[in-house]
Amino acid sequence: MSLQIEFEQGRRALIVRLKGELDHHTAEVVKARMEEAIAKEHTRHLILSLKDLSFMDSSGLGVILGRYKQITSKGGKMVVCDVAPAVYRLFELSGMFKIVSIQDNERNAMSSLEVAL
User: Fold this and answer.
1) For a Cys staple, 43 with which of 14, 27, 51, 112, CB 3.0–4.6 Å?
2) pTM for this structure?
3) pLDDT (0 to 100) of residue 115
């Protein structure tokens, strides 16, 4: 299965929705497209919705960690939301939740950033 990426620019946050599999086959494309969108939109905050992400490996963790560093270096915040169970487990095992904030859904993610919908 391939990966689909959807971007939605909110008032102060870029929402990125990933659908499919984020692995070593798709990681470079996701990284490049997210970097480009963050730069193009002058994004300060990032919400990453993983509701439809069916699989992720360590390459995907690297992409997410890299975007976290990119956003925080600009003084922004990154929130991950709607994490599917299989991906949630990978986040737990890797310790990613100690670094990245997690919320149940996009609305809560927006609220946690204090950004109006």
Assistant:
1) 14
2) 0.91
3) 54
